[in-house]
Amino acid sequence: MSTELSLALVQDAAPGSLDEFRTRMRGLVRQYPRTELFVFPEQHLLGAFDVFDQSDLARHAEPLDGPTCKDLAGLAAELGVWLTPGSILEAGDDGLVYNTMVVFSPSGELAASYRKIFPWRPVETVQPGADFTTLRVGGERTVGLMVCYDAWFPEVSRQLAWMGADLLVNVVLTPTADREQEVVLVQANAIANQVFVASVNAAAPRGQGRSLLVDPQGRILASAVGAESTVLAATIDLDEVRRTREYGTAGVTRPWSQFADTDAPIDLPIYGGRIDPRTWERRR
């Protein structure tokens, strides 16, 4: 079974409407007809929504079975592609609002949803999620989902890699100067976990751009040099994850094969088995 995956990372300005997004997607599929997975930035469909003004989140939020997701599911089925339109503001059954990444399958199903675990505090006031999410994108190809600031917490990438992800897809809306550091983190997360990482940031004027795709050895396969709208199209072989772990990064380093059967367990008292928000400040 093929382990290759063709993907298009769409560093774009936000569309003015769903109709505009549908038109954009139809054009992209004509331009990249063999591409299986299309990925857009965080909160891409929220248009003029100001990330720095979160005073009325509920007005922009919808449940996952609402009209926006139904429309996107139909679009994915029409085009026969895997579609990640970034994240949406989800109105949860609990009355709270989440920043939720969604993935639609070529059959028109909501294949996965992931609530951002680490909102960008103090600006982002959504409720944090609590569950890590991976999904199979046909066959043996496993993708882990991350939203923007999650990439700053190495525990997220490690957990998704431990769950079997070969590719981490990080949708991003970074309008600030620390995009330079995020580019380094993309490579670091790929190297430390020996996985592919795709980081898709918004184009100007909402974002700083500089989207990139990195392989399990930390090599940049494709990158946007600036903040203008562009598409990074590539075909990757996810079996490279297995090869890198078997033969080592740069032919040397094999962290997933570190331990011998005779090694003693290592306690990690910093977490006590979990990250507890009530004690996080004291652990610093």
TrEMBL record:
<dbReference type="Pfam" id="PF00795">
    <property type="entry name" value="CN_hydrolase"/>
</dbReference>
<dbReference type="InterPro" id="IPR050345">
    <property type="entry name" value="Aliph_Amidase/BUP"/>
</dbReference>
<keyword id="KW-0378">Hydrolase</keyword>
<dbReference type="GO" id="GO:0016811">
    <property type="term" value="F:hydrolase activity, acting on carbon-nitrogen (but not peptide) bonds, in linear amides"/>
</dbReference>
<feature type="domain" description="CN hydrolase">
    <location>
        <begin position="5"/>
        <end position="238"/>
    </location>
</feature>
<dbReference type="InterPro" id="IPR003010">
    <property type="entry name" value="C-N_Hydrolase"/>
</dbReference>
<protein>
    <recommendedName>
        <fullName>CN hydrolase domain-containing protein</fullName>
    </recommendedName>
</protein>
<dbReference type="InterPro" id="IPR036526">
    <property type="entry name" value="C-N_Hydrolase_sf"/>
</dbReference>
